[in-house]
Amino acid sequence: MQLSIKPGAGLLLKRVGNFLTGQGIKAYVVGGFVRDTLLSIDSADIDIAIASNALEITPRIAQALGGKYVLLDKTNQVTRVVLVSKQAPAGSGQWHLDFSTLKGKVEQDLARRDFTIDAMAVSLSELTSGSREVQLIDPFSGWEDLKQGQIRATGETTFREDAARLLRAVRLAAEFGFSIDQATETLIRRNCHLIASVAGERVREELLRLLVSPEAGNFLSYLDELGLLTNIIPELAQSKGVEQPKEHFWDVFEHSLKTVITSSLLLREGAWEYDTGQILSSVPWSERLVQHFDQEVSSTSSRRSLLKLAALLHDIAKPQTKTIESGGRIRFLGHAKEGAEIAGGILERLRFSNKEIGLVKLIVQHHLRPGQLSQEGPPSPRAIYRYFRDSDDAGIETLYLSLADHLATRGPNLILAHWQEHTQMVEYVLAQRFQRESVTSPPKLVSGDDLINIFSLSPGPRIGEILESVREALASGEITTREEALSYIRDHLLS
Fold first, then answer.
1. In this structure, are 14 and 127 located in the same domain?
2. Strands (E), 117-220
3. What gap in Å lies between CA 470 and CA 478, rounded to an integer?
4. Measured in whole angstroms, how far is the alpha carbon of residue 342 from the centre of its chain?
5. Terminus of the chain with fewer CB atoms < 10 Å: N or C?
6. Residues 439-468 pLDDT 10s
7. pTM of the prediction?
8. Predicted confidence (pLDDT) per residue in 95-147, tens digit
9. Do residue 369 and residue 279 come from a single domain?
10. What is d(CA 287, CA 2) in angstroms, rounded to the nearest whole number?
């Protein structure tokens, strides 16, 4: 078989091969790198199984390559070399060489791997020999599954050996556009409860990679069908079957999943089965917004993926806040504020960073605010200022969640005129946000010292209240200069 290795990876593997050959150590390139190469995907992650103790050899490899040694798993003898390089695939900037210790023959090593498409190997010496043809070691027909676009477990014990593989199966299907074969689906359903025992950080990594998919909402539904979603986030189970007001086409749980789908639509990623071709035409979009949503929040998350996560969790508190009034009206008073706290607890459990948690909590807490910005006509500058002041760093995401929420509320019963009113409001607020800096960051015209020295006020909360009133007046255009600010304080706040 011909295996086309990119020049940068080929040069790196040759250096590793030369070092190991010099030590008399047999080695194999295994797993994901072989899979990705067969799929013509440029990968910065290379797995190498060596017939020696990886704990002893890898530090010397790191030194020889000028890389950093990282111990991943002492018990199973798994290590990593991180190598910063301009030749690494675009966007990565570094290579990750993961070394594991071969225990027996390479076929035995492959038998312990998760899926057939990851259970293939090539001899490192053969790969770097310059020969155009290499022997693919493929005891589980992974190459055939790769051609068929199929995720298949290597054995009956795959998920019992490592329950994180339950989520990884779906994530791989999402990344590659593959399907999971029927027997593997049965195994996942049988073992779905095991996902609850997986460390939060491992679940977080798989979940974030799943949320990158344009079809994230559909794959979250698939997770639910397999019994995984509510084992990962048990709080979601309470929302199943919870009836909503007549404006809603779906119950709380289905609505939450649909909101992830509509978020992807608005981000210009996925599709919406009820899109008549007129939905996106009125939704504001620009290169500036693309750059905003593409911003990294952590090394593995962006504003895009966290918006979709907030969409999944935005109504998490509806079950416990639901009330039915005497006239039959269904209400969920306080669900946004309470939901933010519940969402924060879920993300803490899954080991999300404080920055990620803070952003998602803000989006959830304020997801109703855009709908309250204007009842008749465009929102006032003062209302826009207060909105961005309160939603802080999540203001733009919250506007788009409000749009996604609207679509996922009405579904096939969407009233186009009402939708266009909503999108026009969002467009107006965004225009004010981008065109008038004073709306979100009004200049400081007076200080606390001014209030103490000029107006003889005593230090205390009253000073903060006055300064905030001045900022609102500046944002609304009522004042523009320091002199006007001092006059405003004298005439309106101290009278």
1. yes
2. 121-123, 150-151, 179-180
3. 9
4. 18
5. C
6. 667 778 888 888 888 888 888 888 888 888
7. 0.89
8. 999 999 998 899 999 999 999 999 999 999 888 877 778 899 999 999 999 99
9. yes
10. 41
